[in-house]
Backbone:
């Protein structure tokens, strides 16, 4: 057995480099317009809290994922980018109208600004994700946002996902997003955020030699 | 005593591949070749892409074909001069073509065999290195320890370049004038963040020095026993808590003899 212990301790004295973890930015663009009142906003808030817990439970995702929140309307930055441990899910309340276009533009600006911070600090990063969740119809023009999203997706600047809740105008969501807009089944916010955290775990743990990331199936929360 | 190289290496499956039941997609080759009486260290390391269905076969083939190309060059020349950059690029081209043909023969796409490639040939008088994609070669010359080519990734942390890519030529890095070196390490990207300092793009001395000093002290006839220590290191919880990827580590040290 002596030989084994020699092998185990042969390189015992080495120490690892302390590099910043690569980051995976995720912006939640959440509708808190008047129509979200009641069960919807309660379940949405609960879902975001659940999202934090799920990310915290995974050691690599806890170090690598950064979450920010934009709510609309009015368009408000509710939370700047933070690791799951420093992310404090906001308690959204139903407020105004549905300025979806402006909210999406705000999220895109935040993502680009965050990438600049990463670059300046020599932090490597994964493609950021922007998640839009709404139950309504945009009350502002979405054409500029739609153009930015199409261009951003085409140049792989970010990945944009549009999730419709309840009576959301799925046609307008489809105009906004390059990927197929998905409809949330009932108030399956928790199931959605479980899927999102699993997806974030997959993305944040994909190695440089995995150029495509296999995401979990969205069947648990969407009805097509 | 005549000059010689001490050489140890190992490849270990990442914990994420362990969980998914996929094979280790890294490959490594290392040997000391007699180059007209001069001992030449010849090494190759390759990381098969996680997204490639035949990444394991790709990386194995890349290492095999690279060493065959290098040996064919050794057989046709003398050890006075290193291979030129054009010759080094030619070896990479041979690997690329071989993988493209292998894919065609199996009715698959080249990207199904996607892999990175790092290689070095070192004699007492000179060294030459090549690389495509990430992973790193670290060498010690008279000026100290340095990373030969800083690992190249794309815009995002999970993107790199492969020898099977259509435009791979643009990302082939070669250096035929590395000069004489006394220590060499090669690794795939699974170990990069543990062994390199990203802030100043330097080798992390506290990682490498214990490896090299242990290897240098090992009696020559017992060098192979240290392969097990590399395996233990790569399998250990200290490494696995920092990376879930496949990882390869090769360490070589030159002994002047005499």
Residues:
């Amino acid at each position: 057995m002596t030989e084994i212990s020699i092998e185990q301790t042969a390189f015992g004295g080495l120490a690892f480099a302390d590099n910043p973890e690569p980051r995976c930015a995720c912006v939640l663009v959440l509708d808190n317009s008047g129509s979200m009142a009641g069960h919807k906003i309660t379940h949405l808030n609960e879902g975001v809290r659940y999202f934090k817990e799920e990310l915290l439970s995974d050691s690599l995702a806890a170090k690598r994922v950064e979450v920010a929140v934009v709510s609309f309307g009015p368009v408000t930055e509710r939370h700047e980018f933070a690791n799951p441990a420093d992310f404090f899910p906001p308690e959204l309340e139903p407020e105004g109208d549905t300025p979806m276009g402006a909210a999406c533009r705000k999220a895109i600006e935040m993502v680009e600004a965050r990438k600049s911070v990463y670059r300046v600090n020599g932090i490597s990063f994964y493609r950021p994700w922007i998640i839009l969740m709404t139950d309504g119809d945009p009350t502002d023009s979405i054409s500029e946002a739609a153009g930015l999203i199409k261009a951003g997706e085409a140049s792989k600047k970010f990945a944009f996902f549009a999730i419709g809740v309840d009576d959301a105008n799925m046609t307008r969501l489809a105009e906004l997003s390059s990927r197929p807009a998905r409809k949330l089944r009932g108030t399956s916010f928790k199931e959605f955020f479980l899927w999102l955290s699993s997806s974030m775990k997959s993305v944040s743990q994909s190695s440089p030699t995995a150029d495509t990331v296999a995401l979990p199936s969205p069947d648990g929360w969407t009805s097509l | 005593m005549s000059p010689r190289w001490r050489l140890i290496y190992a490849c270990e499956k990442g914990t994420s591949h362990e969980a998914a039941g996929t094979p280790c997609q890294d490959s490594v080759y290392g040997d000391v070749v007699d180059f007209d009486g001069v001992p030449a260290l010849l090494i190759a390391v390759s990381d098969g892409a996680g997204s490639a269905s035949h990444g394991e076969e790709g990386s194995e083939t890349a290492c095999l074909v690279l060493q065959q190309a290098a040996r064919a060059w050794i057989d046709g020349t003398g050890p006075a001069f290193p291979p030129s950059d054009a010759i080094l690029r030619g070896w990479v081209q041979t690997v690329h073509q071989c993988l493209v043909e292998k894919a065609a023969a199996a009715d698959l796409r080249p990207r199904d065999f996607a892999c990175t490639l790092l290689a070095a040939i070192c004699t007492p008088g000179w060294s030459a290195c090549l690389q495509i994609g990430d992973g790193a070669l670290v060498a010690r010359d008279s000026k100290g320890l340095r990373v030969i080519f800083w690992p190249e990734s794309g815009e995002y942390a999970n993107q790199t370049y492969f020898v099977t890519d259509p435009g791979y030529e643009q990302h082939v890095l070669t250096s035929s004038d590395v000069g004489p070196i006394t220590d060499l390490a090669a690794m795939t990207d699974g170990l990069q963040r543990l062994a390199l300092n990203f802030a100043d793009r330097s080798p992390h001395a506290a990682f490498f020095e214990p490896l090299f000093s242990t290897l240098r002290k090992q009696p020559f006839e017992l060098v192979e026993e240290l392969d097990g220590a590399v395996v233990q290191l790569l399998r250990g919880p200290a490494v696995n808590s920092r990376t879930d990827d496949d990882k390869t580590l090769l360490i070589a040290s030159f002994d002047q003899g005499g």
The CA atoms of residues 20 and 123 of chain A lie 6 Å apart. The radius of gyration of chain A is 19 Å. The longest helix of chain A spans residues 100-120.
